[in-house]
Amino acid sequence: MSYLIACAPCCWGVESADNPHNPDWMHVLHETNEAGFAGLELGPYGFMPLDADSVSTALFLKQLEICAGTIFEPLSDIDSQINILNKTKTLCALLQKIGADKLVVIDCVNDVRSQFAGLSDLAPRLENGKWSVMMNTIRQISAIAKAFDIRAVVHPHAGGYIEYEDEVDRMLAELTHDEVGLCLDTGHLYYAGMDPAKSLKQYANRLDYVHFKDVNDAVLRSVIESRVGFWQACADGVMCPIGEGAVDYDAVQQVLTEIGYTGWITIEQERDPRNSSTTLPDIKRSRKYLAKRGFG
């Protein structure tokens, strides 16, 4: 099958645009190119310039493409809705101008659910009123994206309110295929207690985009037991280079072939941005592993 392999700024620990420890965005582009990737995601809103000419020039110089943008927000918070939708409009206009066609939509990590990441049986579910707000917000994000010829894809994410299988199923039952697709992340699926390969096959009819991530199982068991929260788990090294963790990439590759998935696969490996000096060797190892398997 034909795949294009990208990475994302979270590999450098970039989770918000205002973290003073973030590397410069041009440094991220430089190392992405050096590691042999074809493209990358924009990262959190505002990390890269929101000016299409600036981004396009930098991409041209580094021989890269942007494969997707991201809305990473508290989707069930009605007071944040207007701001989220305004960000969506700005971001989709940028994506359209630079030639990208995916918007990854994530209910962001929150203090309540973060400590229950990976604990499906114990994690409190969102109450119905706030769930309805979240569905309405996603529906409006989708409509805005569609106006710019951008496909909205919902990403189940550890520490947010769309994480576990029942939440994914509930969301898909309420939002049509025309409204949203899925971005499935092998690492977040594993973190949530789901089998990544089986889930990719189970949701193949809604799958539009794939993230690859790998998980250090020993660290995962430790952080779940201690409930340190998702971000501390990332700082503690719960994510590792592709092929060095617990995710069965033989099975993942077989399923992607069976379902006929083509297009972008983006690798991610969250960490503390203060440890971003380790990013380049790690993403090189991930890229080498995928190249040996015939990806990209």
Automatic annotation (TrEMBL):
Pfam name, any one: AP_endonuc_2
InterPro entries membership: IolE/XylAMocC-like (IPR050312), Xyl_isomerase-like_sf (IPR036237), Xyl_isomerase-like_TIM-brl (IPR013022)
SUPFAM superfamilies xrefs: Xylose isomerase-like (SSF51658)
UniProt keyword list: Isomerase
UniProt GO MF annotations: isomerase activity
Presence of keyword Isomerase: yes
Keyword Nucleotidyltransferase: no
Domain Xylose isomerase-like TIM barrel: 31-289
Name of this protein: Xylose isomerase-like TIM barrel protein
